[in-house]
Write a structure and sequence with these properties.
Blueprint: E1 5-6, H1 26-32, H2 36-43, E2 68-70, E3 73-80, E4 83-89, E5 92-94, E6 104-106, E7 110-114, E8 130-136, E9 142-148, E10 151-152, E11 155-156, E12 160-164, E13 178-189, E14 192-202, E15 205-206, E16 210-214, E17 231-236, E18 242-247, E19 251-252, E20 255-256, E21 260-264, H3 275-279, E22 289-296, E23 301-307, E24 316-320, E25 327-331, E26 337-342, E27 346-353, E28 371-383, E29 399-403, E30 410-411, E31 422-428, E32 431-436, E33 440-441, E34 449-453, E35 474-475, E36 484-489, E37 498-505, E38 513-518, E39 526-531, E40 541-547, E41 553-555, E42 559-560, H4 570-577, E43 582-584, E44 599-601, E45 605-608, E46 619-623, E47 630-632, E48 636-638, E49 642-649, E50 656-662, E51 672-678, E52 684-690, E53 693-698, E54 709-716, E55 719-724, E56 727-732, E57 741-747, E58 765-774, H5 780-790
Helix pairs in contact: 4-5
């Protein structure tokens, strides 16, 4: 039935793209990844980590109506129970979904709302300047705010104040004063309040960007580590002994610590052995990089990095072990990162990510495409792939989390001068709250604040994004006996990786074919659905429906297709039953019987009436000249896991390409991968390009004996495998990845320069038959079955 699947503060730059160009030294990596992180890396080896379908722990992409900011931004948030306290720069709050400048309620740079209902609460202090830090007291009775202000509720308060969490009134007899540009970070533990920012004194005593107060009267404590530049983030480590500090500094108490440090919460002594401090180096001479935010759950400390003009080595997110600070994982999605929040199972970040193929997310696009929020597993699920985007540190081999397919759309703002979307994240229960300077989410009216839930009140409604004329199927070859094929590119969804595809024939209520496939906006493969029950000779219309896990659907444009009569050969039925993404019978059939990517023959590639025993269409003869090749008509997204299958016959001793994926349709491709080729001696090699290296395995024996042979090359997590005449003849378990991208399939010839035992000729002289490409690795039983049927 189912068809086959072919299947920040305003000093840093608005679009931070630069990072340290040179890779970390081996010594630095060893120092940072010893201990717990080294064990984690040994346990998870997939590179990059697999992209995951959203599960019950991950919020949907549906924005939920939430109180809004009118003409301003939210910089920081914290939560007590189900109450979210949001701070920043704004004069009014606006009712959920209300248009700008309507339904306003005065709020002075701070508000509180209920995360369950989304409603504004009466909490309404008046603060005369921007607020950039907010934290709750350990008992939940107070809210501490920090920023650049000098009046709160009509009384003098210098950059810091304590408020009653219920009423918003100032706490009596609590009036410390911090002198300087402002306070940008607050953390609490027991009866101590820790402050970070850009200041030179607290309560009249010298303090250099870090200070501590008691919670009784705000008395200054002796805790006094010195950061040489601005502090932007503080969090208590889950182990309970340290204050983790993030910011733009390059030293703390004279120790070289660039952007992140851990200090003893009682004495202020710097822990120079804290692991992540040795690995993440986010501070430059001009304060052009740093750690923007810190968060913690019971098991780890998380931080986000930004960099401008190569000032640091991490644009992305890190997770560190709470006791040693050793790297738990690195997510090096290029683009400045801002807020971070962990539920213990899922880690959410806000950013302007634009290049993240090292994590299995979007590669760099041209023109650049920015995404503004990500969701990761809290634990490591693989290792980072090699960075291919110039100007960034190569974190290859470090442990990394898996990303979930979760990507709401954001309309960025420019209230801060950064030109970003989300800046902070908090949460409670099954909800998260994202605050920032965005003007809309998923095209709806959500400004400054928005909620997401694992169980949204109206249900998960964010469905497949393509429909109608923007998602049009194509008809496969109408001469394929006994079936009608309809092909279409995979759809994509903001919060679903895997979609179900259903083929409907005009006049039917139930689908005539069903399959599932993964798809994203940056990586769309082709699926092919088959109708084997249509009446031969008729031309009904067909539509394809994409359905997500929550039942949301999108329907394609319709297309008419003629059903051919007759019966397919046993070999054709066997191949098509295994779901190829491309199938060229060759001979007198110049069609793709698996889809609609038909072959294009060059001069010197001609049909022959003779072919393998299991074929009824003949084969294609190649004369060995440079134009004697067959190419796919269209470029397609080639999958990293695949199998290529070809039958060949020759007596030549000049070798040549049998099949490969090339970057050019004709001539010599600048890039060739997935190559099955014959050497001068008649040995068949199969290989993939790994970076600039080419890894191959060979048949061992010569096959230019004038007989038909079957060759199958496959790549998967099990490694690279070569089958000859139904039997596995060579394998390399260490090679699991090929180059991704849009490529043409090339048969009979392409550039083999640089490949091991490259033949005298790039172009094969002989005959090819029954060529197929599969978006997965065929099993040994499948390969053997194809050989047995094909050999008669």
């Amino acid at each position: 039935m189912a068809g086959g699947v072919t299947v920040k503060n305003t000093n840093f730059g608005r679009r931070a793209r630069g990072a340290l160009a040179s890779a970390l030294t081996a010594g630095l990596l060893v120092a940072g990844l010893s201990g717990a992180s080294a064990g984690a890396a040994a346990e998870v080896s997939a590179s990059p980590p697999p992209l995951l379908q959203r599960d019950e722990n991950v919020v949907t992409a549906d924005p939920i109506p939430t109180v809004q900011i009118d003409d301003g931004y939210v910089w920081a948030q914290t939560t007590i129970g189900t109450t979210v306290y949001a701070v920043g720069k704004f004069d009014n709050a606006r009712e959920p979904m209300a248009a700008p400048n309507t339904s306003l309620t005065a709020r002075s740079n701070v508000l509180a709302y209920d995360i369950v209902s989304g409603d504004l609460l009466p909490f309404a202090p008046e603060v005369n300047g921007v607020i950039k830090a907010v934290a709750a007291s350990p008992d939940g009775s107070r809210i501490y705010i920090g920023g650049s202000f000098n009046r709160v509720n009509g009384e003098d308060r210098w950059n810091f104040a304590a408020l009653d969490a219920a009423t918003g009134e100032l706490i009596p007899q609590f009036a410390p004063a911090v002198g300087g540009t402002g306070i940008y970070a607050i953390a609490t533990a027991g009866s101590t309040i820790y402050l970070g920012g850009l200041f030179t004194q607290a309560n009249g005593a010298a303090r250099n960007n870090l200070a501590a107060l008691d919670d009784a009267h705000g008395a200054l404590q002796t805790w006094a580590p010195q950061a040489n530049r601005q502090v932007d983030a503080l969090v208590m480590d889950p182990a309970g002994s340290k204050v983790v500090v993030g910011g733009r500094f390059s030293t703390v108490d004279g120790s070289a610590l660039r952007g992140v440090a851990a200090v003893n919460k009682a004495t202020g002594a710097v822990d120079t052995d804290w692991g992540i401090s040795k690995v993440v180096q986010n501070s430059g001479n001009n304060s052009n990089s740093g750690i923007f935010a810190l968060a913690a759950d019971e098991n780890a400390v998380y931080g986000t990095g930004w960099s401008w003009s190569r000032g640091g080595n991490l644009e992305g997110t890190f997770a560190a072990e709470p006791d040693t600070g050793a790297v738990r994982w690195i997510a090096d999605c290029h683009g400045d990162h801002y807020g971070v929040y962990s539920t213990g199972k899922v880690v959410y970040t806000t950013s302007h990510m634009h290049s993240c193929d090292t994590m299995g997310l979007q590669p760099q696009q041209n023109p650049v495409v920015y995404k503004y929020a990500e969701a990761y597993t809290a634990d490591a699920r693989g290792t980072l792939a090699a960075n291919t985007y110039s100007g960034y540190t190569n974190w290859e081999g470090n442990p990394a989390p898996s990303a979930y397919q979760w990507s709401p759309d954001w309309s960025v703002g420019n209230q801060t001068g950064l030109g970003q979307a989300g800046l902070s994240i908090t949460g409670a229960g099954d909800m998260i709250s994202i605050g920032g300077e965005f003007a809309a989410v998923n095209g709806g009216q959500f400004e400054g604040l928005v909620r997401f839930s694992t169980n949204p009140p109206a249900g998960a409604k964010s469905g497949p994004r393509l429909s109608g004329e923007s998602w049009t199927p194509t008809v496969g070859n109408a001469s394929v006996p006994g079936k009608t094929t309809v092909s279409i590119q995979t759809n994509w969804d903001r919060d679903d990786l895997t979609l179900t595809y259903e083929l409907y024939r005009e006049g039917t209520v139930e689908p005539v074919a069903i399959t599932t496939a993964d798809g994203t906006w940056w990586n769309q493969s082709t699926i092919t659905l088959e109708d084997t029950s249509a009446t031969p000779g008729e031309s009904p219309s067909y539509t394809v429906v994409a359905r997500d896990a929550d039942g949301n659907i999108a329907t394609s444009a319709s297309v008419r297709a003629i059903s051919a009569g007759g019966t397919a050969s046993a070999y054709t039925r066997t191949v098509l039953g295994d779901g190829p993404s491309l199938y060229y019978p060759l001979g007198d059939i110049s069609k793709d019987w698996a889809g609609s990517n038909d072959p294009v023959n060059g001069w010197g590639a001609t049909a022959s009436s003779s072919g393998i025993k299991g074929s009824e269409t003949g084969s294609t003869s190649l004369n060995g000249f440079t134009s004697a090749r067959v190419s796919s008509n269209n470029r397609v997204a080639v999958s990293e896991e695949f199998s290529t299958e070809v039958w060949f016959k020759t007596t030549a001793s000049t070798g040549g390409l049998l099949i490969g994926s090339g970057s050019a349709k004709s001539g010599s491709s600048p890039t060739l991968d997935r190559a099955l080729y014959m050497t001068n001696s008649g040995v068949v090699n199969f290989g993939v390009a790994v970076g600039r290296a080419r890894q191959t395995v060979g048949s061992g024996r010569s096959l230019n004996d004038g007989n038909w042979h079957q060759a199958v090359g496959s790549l998967s997590a099990e490694g690279m495998k070569l089958y000859i005449d139904g039997e596995l003849v060579a394998a390399d378990a260490g090679v699991t990845k090929a180059q991704a991208g849009l490529m043409y399939w090339r048969l009979g010839g392409d550039r083999l320069t640089g490949w091991p035992s490259a033949p005298f000729s790039n172009y094969f002289r002989g005959s090819l038959d029954e060529v197929a490409v599969y978006p997965y690795a065929l099993s040994e039983d499948q390969v053997r079955s194809h050989f047995q049927v094909g050999a008669g």
